[in-house]
Structures are given as C-alpha cells and as structure tokens.
Design goal:
The structure is a homodimer. Chain A has 15 helices and two strands. Chain A is an all-alpha fold. Chain A has one domain: Farnesyl Diphosphate Synthase, CATH 1.10.600. A two-stranded antiparallel ribbon of chain A has the order 1-2. In chain A, helix 2 crosses helix 6 and helix 9 runs parallel beside helix 15. Chain A is globular.
C-alpha cells in the first residue's frame, strides 16, 4: 500500500494548498470546513492509481482527482441535509454548523468547483472525461432519490436495492478509476474494465458496510453497532431475511434486545451468509476485470491489495 | 425582433423534445415541470444570437444554449428554497409542489445536466466554453450568498449592491452571449465585448426591474407594485434615498400608505431619477461594447432593439 499512501498524501498536500479565502466567507468557509474534516481520500487516490497503472503521469490526473474528491464532498453536504444528519466524521454537518441555505449554496458551488478541477486537463481527453463524470454525477443523484424513496416503502426487492447502492455509491468509485484511465489515454476497453472493477469493489464494500453495521466490533467500527437495525433500514440483510422467513423478529422493549433478535434473525434465515457470499461474488467480479487489464504490475498488485483491504476491513 | 423570436422558438422546440421520462420519476418530473413553466428563454436566445452575429452556425450553439437555460432554471429552483418562495411564474415552486429534498436533488441533477448540454460541442471550443460557464456559475452562487447576507444587514452600500446584482443576475446574460461567441470561434476581444454587453444590459435590466417594482403599472407588470418596499428590500432606490435623507418615511398603518410614502420618498430624495440615470448609463456602456464588435449587421440591429426593449419594458 506504499503507493496508495503516497497518492493519498499527494491529494492531502494539494487540497491543503488550495485557496479557500475567497469572498463571501459564508459561501467558502463551509467548503474549506468539509474538505478539512478528512475522510480517506480513496476516490482521488484511485484516480491517480488508475492513471499510473495505465502509463499516465500522476501529475496530469491530480487536478481531476481533486475534482472527484470535491464532488464526493458536495454529495455528502447535500445528502446530509436530505437525511437530516447532524454529524459527519465526528463533527457537525454543514447545515448544522451554519444553516440549510448555506449548505445548499456551498454544495452547489462545490459541484461547480468539481467541474473546474476536472476541466484542468488536456483538451484531447476533456470530452470523454466530462461525459464519464457527468453520467456518474447524474446517477449519484438518481441513487440518492431511490434511497429516499425506499424509506417510505414497505418492501424493497433485492435487485432494486443493489441498483440503488450501485448508483448511490459504486459508480463514483468506477468513475474515479475511469477518470485516471482516460487521462492516461487508455483504450476504451481498459477504461471500461477499470470502471467495472471500481463498481464491483464499491458493491462489495457496501455489502461489508452493511455486515459491519449489524455484526461489527463497535470499538473498531467507530460507530454504534445496530444503527441500520434500529433505523429500520432496508439493507440486503433485511431484504433477504424478510424474503426467507414468515415473520419479523418479535417486538422487544430495549434497543439492545432488538439488535440481538435481529442479529439472530439475520443468522437463522441465512441472510448473513448470503450477504457475505454476495460480497465475495462482487469482489471476484472486480478481480476478474482487473486481471484482464494490461498495466504496470506494481500498481496492479497495490490495487488488488487495496481492494481486499476494503472488503475485509473491520472498521 | 424576428430573429430573436425565431431563436426563442428553436429553444422551445428543442426543450419540448428532450426526454424527461427517465427514472426515478421523483427526480425527473420536477425538472420537466420547471422547464415547462415557460419563461422568456432570453438567455439561450442570446447564445444563438451571439453565435450567428459572429458568423457561427446556430445549430452548433443549440445544445449549449439549452444548457444555459437549464442552469438558469436550476438556480431558480434552489433560490426559491432559500428565499422561501411559494410561487414561480404563477405556479407552485418545486419545493412547494413536492418537497425541499426533491427540490435540492432535482436542482443538483439540473446543474449536472446543464454541463452535459454544454459539453455537446466541438472539442476545440470546449475548454474555453467550460471555463467561461463555470466562472459564471460560481459567481451566481456568490451573488445569491451576498443577497442573503444583505437581508440581515442594516445598511448596504451602492457598490456592494451593484456587485451583488452583477454576480447574481448579470453575469449569466454575459456568459450566455459569450458562449455563442466562443462557439462561433470569435476572437478573445469579441468574446469579451459581448460578455460586457450582456453584463451591462443585465445591470440596466435590474435597474428597470427595481423601478417597475416600486413605480410600475400593476396590470402590466404582472405582480403587485411595492413588493420590494413591503419586504424591506435594499434595492438601489432604497440605498440612494437612505444616503440622501436624514430619515426614513414615517411609519404608517396600511400597506397602501407605506407604498405611497416610500414612492414619494424615492422621488423627493432623487432616488428614482438616480436609478433611471444608472439604467441609462449601463445601457449606453452596453451599446458601446456592442458597437465595437464586427458582426452581421442584421443580427446586431436585433440585439440593439432587444436591449432597448429590455430596459424600456413596462412588464
């Protein structure tokens, strides 16, 4: 992971040197704030990795990679308003710290800024880069809308759930990798393969995230176990268990009991095992896509290691 | 105005044939709704006019012009949330008809769509077009933020007010014209001149808008006269009158009396005359920019006529 860490460091250094001092302060302070809260910078690191994998220069991918990270943060700011979330990365969300109007407007400005950074690339690759990015950006909006729709639905089927998480979270990983491939002037086949690698890793990642939320170690996971259960979230664990048993777990009085009985239900119905298998299946699809790509072996092996660490993580 | 009307018709036809049938419906219906509410389609018509003025083909500017119109509508949807507005073009605003979350998200999708339409242009002009558009888009966000900031301020000075309306409304007219010029592969000087023409027309337009709001004919203006007065808006009329008299008009009991006393105050302090002079001054600056441009005389004369109609309008 030496290379990936180096990419992350490049992103951090570059982000730290951007100018956030513009006026009006009310618009630019929230942008600086959300970008300073950290996050793993995985997506822009993947852009740099993909570019180097396919023989491009990482410097050429740096500004577009920053654009990908700013887009990701834009989506967090607006999603947090819609989801009524008050905490992000252990700190107040933008709409909590300022207000909803400021969160809407600084989010809008971030989306525009994402395009500005993306545009800081050579003319030759710009049209393809823009097409890929905008397609992804629209899909992320669609995914968020499906997610909101699901909240008011009694039942969600498995395909709809997988399509929702593909749109809401996975295509961004795919597009981050594809951006690097496009900048490296890779073939359409290589671009598509890296995109598919990213989407499948994203799906595997989300399976693991759902598993950790219900079965993780609270100390390592960094948030309370059972959040999805208590919030009635229709994750794949829930959907599979619901489809494979006559009844929901009996109502209980305490949160602790409810979590316990849902955990048992997920195990007894085979939902836990099913989601673990799904995770592995997406992971293997991702690996197959990556294997087919002709690229620098030392970067490829880092991507393999990185992908494995994402789906095996316990935090 | 035959040509301008033809441009507007081209825009209407093209908008009517776009596909809004995508899923999820909750995301795409509001986009179709706001774009169907009408509006004068002035901005995209200006893009087509600028392109033809400078020897380009209007067809080449059509998709980017649609992008400009979609951007304009995006800003209306998000501004209406922030301004808590319930009516737009005589119909419910998006957040009123659906809800705030849907208005945020469909607005986001419109901003991305604007870039998609803008990108449907030749590679050669794309970088310049994107730079101009994104600069404008960021400035529109800045203008909206300044406008919100002014609401909670006791005093606003004239320069700050003019800068706010330049950012919030005028640069979009400038960028709409510049986009057409860029697509026509005009010189940097011609692009800049058309941009300046648009910005100054926009400023003159806003002066006229402020005058109509306080002194217009309600039947023609289409909305109640005195809205700015009753809302305590710090328009240039108010700012000038405040700077040139010791006192505000005496408090009154009825809205009608308040409007009447502010109208008198605007006249007595010379504010009305001052804003009329400002309007003419911006108009003449705009004309000077346009005159310096070498372009098709028949399109140029339409732009002159069009500009005059904007600042002399009574509705």
């Amino acid at each position: 992971m030496k290379k990936i860490q180096a990419y992350v460091q490049m992103i951090e250094n570059t982000l730290a040197h951007q100018d956030y001092d513009a006026e009006p302060r009310e618009l630019y302070e929230p942008i600086h704030y959300i970008l300073s809260l950290g996050g793993k910078r995985l997506r822009p690191a993947l852009t740099l990795a993909a570019c180097e994998l396919l023989g491009g220069k990482t410097e050429d991918a740096l500004m577009p990679a920053i654009g990908i990270e700013i887009f990701h943060n834009f989506s967090l700011v607006h999603d947090d308003i819609m989801d009524n979330a008050s905490v992000r990365r252990g700190q107040k969300t933008v709409h909590e710290k300022w207000n909803t109007n400021i969160a809407i407007l600084s989010g809008d400005a971030m989306l525009v800024k994402a395009y500005q950074y993306l545009g800081a690339t050579e003319q030759e690759v710009l049209p393809k880069l823009l097409r890929s990015f905008s397609k992804m950006a629209i899909e992320v909006c669609e995914g968020q809308q499906y997610d909101m729709n699901f909240e008011s639905k009694d039942t969600v089927n498995e395909d709809d759930y997988l399509e929702m998480i593909r749109l809401k979270t996975s295509v961004l990983l795919g597009a981050a990798l594809e951006a690097g491939a496009i900048i490296a002037r890779a073939s359409d086949i290589a671009c598509k393969a890296l995109y598919n690698f990213g989407v499948n890793i994203g799906l595997a990642f989300q399976m693991q995230d759902d598993l950790l939320d219900s079965f993780g170690n609270a100390d390592k996971f960094g948030k309370r176990i059972g959040g999805d259960i208590l919030n009635g979230k229709k994750t794949l664990l829930y959907i599979y268990a619901r489809n494979n048993s006559r009844n929901l777990p009996a109502d209980t009085n305490s949160d602790e009991q409810k979590i316990k009985s849902f955990q048992n239900w997920f195990i007894e119905t085979g939902a836990k095992q099913y989601v673990e298998e799904k995770r592995e299946s997406f992971y293997h699809k991702a690996m197959k896509e990556l294997e087919a790509i002709q690229g620098k072996p030392e970067v490829k092996s880092e991507l393999v290691y990185f992908a494995r660490s994402l789906v095996e993580r316990d935090q």
